[in-house]
Amino acid sequence: MAISLAHLGPVGTYSESAASAYGEWLETNQQQKFILCPQPSIALALSAVAQKKVNYAVVPVENSIEGTVNITLDTLWQKKDLKILRGLTIPIVHSLLSYNEDLANIKTVYSHPQALGQCQEWLANNLPQVQLIAANSTTEALKLLKEDPTACAISSARAAEIYHVPILYSGINDRPDNCTRFLVIGFETNKFGSHISLAFGLEKSNVPGVLVKPLQIFAEREINLCKIESRPTKRSLGEYIFFIELEGSLQEPKIQEALAELKQYTEVLSIFGNYDSISVE
Ligand SMILES: O=C(O)C(=O)C[C@]1(C(=O)O)C=C[C@@H](O)C=C1
């Protein structure tokens, strides 16, 4: 049976490109067929996998310019059974698309908030007076153009071709090497891979030096931390959950020891997975 992959739609999103790249990887490496299941939001793509309506969701987690996609981290924390099976990084090249060729007539720019954030310097320099309006995805933004002749949208060259919208400018992202990392989310627990993602909450997070001990556990064992991020617990102001990504495998004794020790210092500890990553050119 084909593997079903939920992702943010509709057709032409960067998330669809990431899900297709993972599907092609499955075909090549595991001789599995795949089908794409576009969803109206990242939250609904994650719900689809949480409710077992699909096998996996492929969702963005971090962009090199704009940083973390909060809904992905928050959902991983809330739905404790969901696991990360693989990471996948794709280059992101944004274009400015419109049926109106004269920038002087443009009053509105539609796009996904992440894409607007990744082009904020370009927008400030070239369209300083326009109103920026959030759309559910970069391709949903293109649909809004039909109703508004004074609008443009930020999306990909691929989406421009699919929806037949002229490209006014290409490569408008604020850094040329812009890329977004996606996660493949499902229920399987991998026991090896190059990276481990986890998160923990502390009984009292708002006291001096409270993070020193948990971080020292990794430093003492020369375990490299690639990422640390805090998100609010949503219970009260100033209380945080700490997300960590580290290099290593759950098979390694020093990692097992570190995680056992970490447990003693945390109120809740979730291990989201041990996984390898794919990089798409
Ligand atoms: O709107 C899209 O096309 C998406 O796939 C979403 C998304 C994101 O949420 O980060 C994916 C990649 C890019 O960073 C910009 C937008």
Automatic annotation (TrEMBL):
InterPro entries: ACT-like_dom_sf, ACT_dom, Chor_mutase/pphenate_deHydtase, Preph_deHydtase, Preph_deHydtase_CS. PANTHER family: PREPHENATE DEHYDRATASE P PROTEIN, PREPHENATE DEHYDRATASE-RELATED. Keywords: Amino-acid biosynthesis, Aromatic amino acid biosynthesis, Lyase, Phenylalanine biosynthesis. SUPFAM superfamilies: ACT-like, Periplasmic binding protein-like II. Pathway: Amino-acid biosynthesis; L-phenylalanine biosynthesis; phenylpyruvate from prephenate: step 1/1. It comes from Hyella patelloides LEGE 07179. Residues 199-276 form the ACT domain. It comes from the Bacteria. Its EC number is 4.2.1.51. PROSITE patterns: ACT, PREPHENATE_DEHYDR_1, PREPHENATE_DEHYDR_3. It is an enzyme of class 4 (lyase). It catalyses: prephenate + H(+) = 3-phenylpyruvate + CO2 + H2O. One of its GO terms (biological process) is L-phenylalanine biosynthetic process. One of its GO terms (molecular function) is prephenate dehydratase activity. Pfam families: ACT, PDT. The record marks 180 as: Essential for prephenate dehydratase activity. Residues 4-187 form the Prephenate dehydratase domain. This is Prephenate dehydratase. One of its GO terms (cellular component) is cytoplasm.
